Amino acid sequence: MNEQLLAKTFVELADNLVADFDLIDFLRLLTDRCVGMLGASAAGVLLADRDGELRVMAASDEQVRLLELFQLQNDEGPCLECFHTGAPVIVPDLRTQADRWPRFVAQAQHSGFAAVQAVPMRLRDEVVGALNLFRTHPGPFDPVDTPIAQALADVATISLLQQRSTHRSNVLNEQLQTALNSRVLIEQAKGKLAERQGIDMEQAFTALRGYARAHNRRLSDLARAFINDSEPLTGLGT
Q1: What is the pTM of this model?
Q2: Cα 201 from Cα 190, distance rounded (Å)
């Protein structure tokens, strides 16, 4: 465990308590750091929208994003169970759960994943989503990693809910809906950039994210400008 990186991550997640932050980039930071620190091969975040329906909001790579979508489309899997129960779901070997989630287990194995742990994104009794860590090999999870993953999820959830007022659920719903709309823009921009440069979707996201950070821009605003060709973006997609 890189203790300095862990401490830095908690500071970065908490720092968003007072900042007007880009939610998509914030959640991607969470998934990337979980992969970097907790021995996960990939990570994803599901959040509930205004209607209580789960949506894929962040993923450390395209493969796990598609697997998370598969869970939602088939209404089956550990991440959904974690969200609905509000309790962690830890599966060291997915092969043992073929009867429990037959379609998900088959798809996860096809995608190269053999183990998963999902922790709820919650504040007290309110669960807003799930943080999901996947591994490509079976075996017990490090007992230290699970409480750290839960702590990261808890801090991230506090940041998500930090602007709540007396009408806190409405504020949260508006925030999540804005993030969902931003996610659509970013996916469209990824596709356009990937096609234009002949790269994969993950490389396209990295390029967009790097450009946004280098030019101090919100990722969603950059995505909209790139899709609409509304301004010159020197060095991006050229």
Answers
A1: 0.70
A2: 6
